[in-house]
Amino acid sequence: MVSEYDFWLLDLDGTLVDVEWSYTREVFDRVGDRLGREFSDQEADIIWNGLTGSRDRQLEAWGIDPTEFWAAFHEEEDPLVRAEQTYLHDDAAFVADIDAPVGLVTHCQEFLAEPVLENVGIHDWFDARLCCTEQTGWKPDPQPVESVMANLGVGNNGHRGVLAGDGANDVGAAWNAGLDAIHVERVGHERRGQCVLGDYRVRSFDELF
């Protein structure tokens, strides 16, 4: 499976790593205090894991201004605490053995992503990394994916690549950039409320091998 592709791109949160629920709950409690609005466990789960696709559209549907929410959210996130509360999925270990260029394309902001990568010991797994911003675009926009491909030297020049992630936005970004897509379903179809299609649909990367 691994050798079928000339390069691999991966998402981070929910794909390779996850954070303890207690951390998520505490962050949403503090964000709720800032915004004057309580978040239920279900709402926190939906936003943290992007269960309904676009987080901004979901926030707007709840009557919450996304810009205000994310400003409060990032103010309340402590990079070191988050890193300490983050764990690596056992089935992600195959990435370390990929004998091809490997890139990371994540919505996790750089001030959070770097401590997480260091804490779980996977910083050196990636030949190129990109933390999406308004300037780079957000998945499913292919722009951040294509940017990492360019950094890896595997642009649209006949190389066959794949992007693995836990959300519909990851699959969309892969297809929009002309790549195969692996969807790893970490939360379950029942909790997500829908099925996410992909060229491969697995509950664990172990199923690929």
UniProtKB/TrEMBL annotation:
Keywords, alphabetical:
Hydrolase
Q: Which InterPro entries does this UniProt record tie to the protein?
A: HAD-like_hydrolase_sf, HAD-like_sf, HAD_sf
Gene3D superfamilies for the chain? HAD superfamily/HAD-like
Q: What is this protein called?
A: HAD family hydrolase
**What terms describe the molecular function in GO for this protein?**
phosphoglycolate phosphatase activity
SUPFAM superfamilies this protein is in?
HAD-like
Pfam families given in the database record: Hydrolase
What's an example GO BP annotation here?
Answer: DNA repair
Q: Which organism is it from?
A: Natrialba swarupiae
